[in-house]
Amino acid sequence: MTDAFSLPPEAAEPRLTVAATTLERLRTVPALAPRYAGHPVGVRTLGELAALPPLLKDDLNTALTHLEPRAEAAATWLFQSGGSTGAPKVGYAPTGFYMAGVHAHWPVLDREDVFANAWGAGRMWGAHFLAAALADRAGCRVIALGSITREEYPDWLAFLADRGVTAIGGTPSVLRLWFAHARAAGLKLPSLRKVLWLGEAWQPQLEEDLAAVAPQARRWGMFGSTETWVVGTNTPDCPADTFHPLPEQLVHAGADGLLDFTTLDPAMLNPVLRYRTGDAGELTACPCGRPGRAMRVLGRRDNVVQVRGLGLHVDELVARAEREPGVSRAQVVITEDGGRATGVEVLLLAAPGAGPDPAALRAELLAGTFTLSTAFQHDPEHVTVRVADALVSNDRTGKTASFVVREEAS
Ligand SMILES: [Zn+2]
User: Which of 52, 206, 365, 386 is such that its CA lies 20 to 30 A from the CA of 71?
Assistant: First the structure.
């Protein structure tokens, strides 16, 4: 069982005192206490840890509402951690955002760098601030860009080129916009070496734009959530879906293929004890050769969505659409009426200056996707493909999911 953990027992078990303290805190939460009854009071071994029930986002928010943790010697920041309904769910962190550990193990930025921080700031988003904390540790120059509008790309790109920007960071969706606009405008960022990303899976199409705009640039990834903060990092030598966990993050791959995370950092404010982000994954050796177990993230389990009783693999559909010439990004929008899918629409974001052919792609998707052709056998007109000005994004999280479900107005 212990081989399902990122650390061997001799490295992890002496630090499980932190997990034991987290368990004590969780037992004080009235709504969560019953689930820990019958488990040992402490946590001494990896086996005992694996026997504890996992926590989900709602559980963690229930716990935070009760515990209201506060940082010892800094401000306590509230960041939003998404959630699909109601008010934003929150995660807490002290100033610094635990980035000292990331800086110690991830040699991405140094004093010579000029770093453009393109993660959105404000609206309780965390990534901009944690990237700023990393830059602070590195002692580099920082350009706090945040998010910009479509018309502003050319001017800002010219500014970044003038300033000799060596590093840029953002979610892959946002980076895609930056590099697609640069490519369309024929602008180059010759000094750019490092592309930092966090928040979504890497998009392989970015490599094509990077090759044209910034041929020296390589990707550097972080994996984490607003509950766990940064769990692991990778370098250009690692596959884009494989991350090396930080020593203060204990990663567990369950028998069901889902990852869960336990903090070994006594300063962590969120009670992260077998916390599940919903990501599936496995522990593996990284081809980069760095010793120790790496974590391969296989994507979110919830990206298979039920359409008229059949499982639709949204990521496969999106990947197929994004292979189409002239398509910059794609998104699946499922319309439901009382829980039944009434239509599936694939939205396409055209690459600047390109005009993809929605009709041809629709025919290909219908013919090649068993779920679509079967579920819509009698009303294929409800499967549509169209070019849109923008994809549907979540205003609260700033993320653009690969699929969106909408309730039909009745
Ligand atoms: Zn590696």
Answer: 52
Question: How far, in Å, is the centroid of ligand 1 from the Cα of 47?
Answer: 27
CA 115 to chain centroid: 21
Tokens describing residue 254 = 């369950």
Same domain, 53 and 90: yes
Cα 141 to middle of ligand 1, angstroms: 27
- The domain that holds 315 is classified in CATH as 3.30.300.30
Residue 314 lies in a domain: yes
Q: How many structural domains compose the chain?
A: 3
Assigned token pair, 102: 């990331």
In total, the chain counts a number of residues equal to: 410
Span from the CA of 240 to the centroid of ligand 1 (angstroms): 9
pLDDT in tens, 128-141: 999 999 999 999 99
Give residue 127 CA to ligand 1 midpoint distance, Å.
22
CATH (domain of 102): 3.40.50.980
Q: 90 - beta bridge partners?
A: 80
Domain span including residue 84 = 1-95+256-294
Neighbours of ion ligand 1 (CB under 5 A): 238, 286, 288, 290
Entry pTM: 0.78
